[in-house]
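Convert to structure. Protein one:
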Amino acid sequence: MNTFDPNSVSSGGVLTVNHRAYTVLSLLGRGKGGYSYLVTDGEHRCVLKQIHHEPCDYYTFGDKLAAERNDYARLTAIGVPMPKLLDVDADAERILKEYIDGPTAAELVQTGRMQPQYIEQIEALCERLYAHHTNIDYYPTNFVLENGTLYYVDYECNDYMPEWDFAHWGKQYWISKGGTPMNRLFIYYSLSGNGDLIAETLEKQGFALRRVTPKKKPPKRFFWQVLAGGFGAGVGRKEPLSGYDPDVKDFDEIVIGSPVWNARLSCPINTVLAETDLSGKKLTFVLYAGSGEAPKATKKINERYPDARILLLKEPKKHPDELKKLAQL
């Protein structure tokens, strides 16, 4: 089992697959099975998926790497449009696959660009899948549109169960509520994985995600992380970010997610607030702390954003039931 630390990876860093080096361009996302990065070998862009072994309270895993290979073979035989599997590094638990360049189906929904023919593509695909007693993960972040074709970019599949088919579970996420774009954005920082768990939940509630990454890697030891982060938060330090996009003009509702350091907002989120124009937005802060309390952070938010809502959570990695509070958003 690998000991991969996602905080050790940043834009411009290097990851290897079977001793071949790839430069990291950006983090594409975190799923229940791994982290996916857009990488390049200098000539071609690819997707590198790093298997992780972080806990997941709603899914039980076996051998994740073997599952990726077996699922890819199964879906290839069925004829599912997918990125090609290019390489597998068993020791590092990494897979390399073709990069499909285009918007995700979730982005199409969020920006009001979802078309009936795209849903018809998925329904036609379902006919082939169901004939082979197979379901895939129909959540729209797992599909990318390129040249008019939707590609399933996650290889995961399972035996067919009607409660998890497209009509009963997936289709609801492909349709904009009220026929209008779901323009809600969650901007967050996650040092130890709590923010990522919140992001997974909010994504299912129709939020677009924007994960911020500091340019400087945090200390490896937890003690020094706490010491450095607590001091920086105490003096209101702004942490330089890697590739952060402050443009939120296409979103009406913004949720800011921050761990609580020394009872205050984290340093990366201080930067987000300094660089992002949040005027005129429906604004909520989700703060996650070991104690579930953040008096100084709450005071600062109330002073600067008097109309903002604040939702306090205990760290969901230790208290998963806290995620249920997100249904209020």
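Protein two, convert as well:
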Amino acid sequence: MNIRKINWGRLKPIYLSFSVIVVNTLILLGLLLVVLKFWSPPIPRADFTRQFDLSSYQRVDQTTALEAILENQKIQDEKAFEFFPWAVYVTRPFKGVYVNVGKDHSRLTVLPPPLKTGQKDFVIWTFGGSTMFGWAMPDSQTLASHLQTALNNRLFSYRVRVINYGQPFYHSTMELAFYQYLLRREEKPNVVFFLDGLNDSNNLIKGGDIPWLTDIATVGFEQERLRKYGTDANVPWFTLNESFPLLRLRTWIQQKFKMGTSSGVVKYPKRRGMSVAKALDKYNKNFQICQSIGDAMNIRTYHFLQPVPWFNGPSPRPNKQKNVWFYEGLIDKSRKGFYPIWNALQGVPSAYVDARH
């Protein structure tokens, strides 16, 4: 049997040429990544300031208002939230000039006055969505800050401290979970306020009980589960995140030319809405649980139905019919601890800073 000898001399030029091509390609790719790292085009973002009516900021100047709006835009753009096992997410600690969130995930309020001789502390917890959080408002202009100032000017036997646990995009189911978590962790308050309506009417009808950002939480859980417990066959051996320069360039191209984004491999629960009747039932059950907790723990509990521009307000919208029915269903309920203040802003000029708040 004749075995033909390999002529290594003839393969040497091919090998050298291939090596040069590979090395040069890697060098060019490295240079491209460096360029994209420092000079990649920014992802186009909407001008957040155009959504707001600056004339509605009657207690601060427009420069302060714009700065507060931009700090809230930073929270929105960076999705400055962190995983929270009891309600999927909470706002991360955030330090700005006008917008600040503490380590306990509460929005900063104005400092209470010093405790005077003979006074007792009177603590109020507030819960709600972005309206209670004070979206696009400075710390000093949130509902919680105004409430604290007003009560300290009236209740002279107490030093009132209001702790603002409002969270963007929260609805009553999430607030209840956050409330129960805090009761197990902190000293109970004297009073608790819940301000709801906008997010409940939107989320329960359109997305059910599944909170916003559940998709991110689910994908993160699944990826970590595969990394720690998956078999060699289903664990990716090489992954890239969205900060990789080429992926940033891809995202920019997709958004710039409205090409859409590629869907992830990991699936997460689809947000499914419910009928207005079921949405009302969900809210009413959350209300009853909160009231029962208050009765059992001697915490005065108040629920408020917040004003919104599309319900007998300046901006009626035909696509909000189900939301209107939701509000009408709650207004018809006369019960202890529930206060429908949906009409509190009627007749007030420029009462809303945007189409929601």
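The CA atoms of residues 160 and 317 lie 39 Å apart. The chain has a mean pLDDT of 84.
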